[in-house]
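Quality-control log, excerpt.
Job 1 of 2 completed; input and output follow.
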Amino acid sequence: MRKTIFGCIALSIILLSACSSPKKVKTDNASASKGAQEQTSQTKTNDKMTQVLLKTTFGDIVIALYNDTPQHKANFEKLVNEKFYDGVLFHRIIKGFMIQGGDPDSKTAKPGQHLGSGDVGYTIPAEFVPAHIHKRGAVAAARMGDNVNPQKASSGCQFYIVDGTVYDNDKLNMISMRTGKTFTPEQIQTYTTDGGAPFLDGDYTVFGEVVRGMPVVDKIAAQPKDGADRPTEDIKIISATILP
């Protein structure tokens, strides 16, 4: 069964078209200003975290793995060291949302072949950390849907990088009303300036972030694709290596 990012753009449209009385997100100017001043990066010290270089056919992307999602971090490091990601495709792209890769079946996929079902035979328990949100550049694990995976366990290999969309306060209010999610002033500042995919927070484990190469992510996300969101020309991870 295909590993997905639940609802994708369709869910986003549903969330942003709800018309009931929305729950208000606290966005007063004083709080937002204070939040902006006090905001700290999810990556507190990049030099103390494992960094992984993804060399792709469109350029290099460097991601940092969070220390407080240890099972996801250890698994990603293991797969990188085993050269698992060398040769896999970014098989699913949605501009303004995300790029997804890690399906082992993509290494030998024929043009037009439906991808997204490949795995490594195991899942990883969810590791939700409230501070790790789906901001632009976030790296998170794909997973099976809630109907077969109510514990929200992550795929053992498939991941996505958030390309993201900038949200205004009204749209964040609608997401909050529709899902019950709440956003801190710092998170509101992030989503209304840099952007991201806030409707996924708390449902998919975010275990890292891009620290270099977001223009490459943007370029990949903007490529032509077919009806299944697979790029019409293969976009490959040539190699993945842990940086010293």
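Job 2 of 2 completed; input and output follow.
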Amino acid sequence: MTEITSKELELISDALTAEGLICKKARAYSKTLTDVDLAATMAKIADEHEQRYNALLGLIGG
């Protein structure tokens, strides 16, 4: 496996923070929205960002 530089680690860390925040917000919205279709869309968005978060985490062996 290729060594990750400190700059790459910093960028991955920033991306993890952003993806985690977006996922949490979308998940919260999906649980509070009364429009069923919109709530389902927000849940899907949350799932997509959670997948990205996990993929980024995998890059650093987390």
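Post-run check on job 2. The helical segments are 6-32, 36-59.
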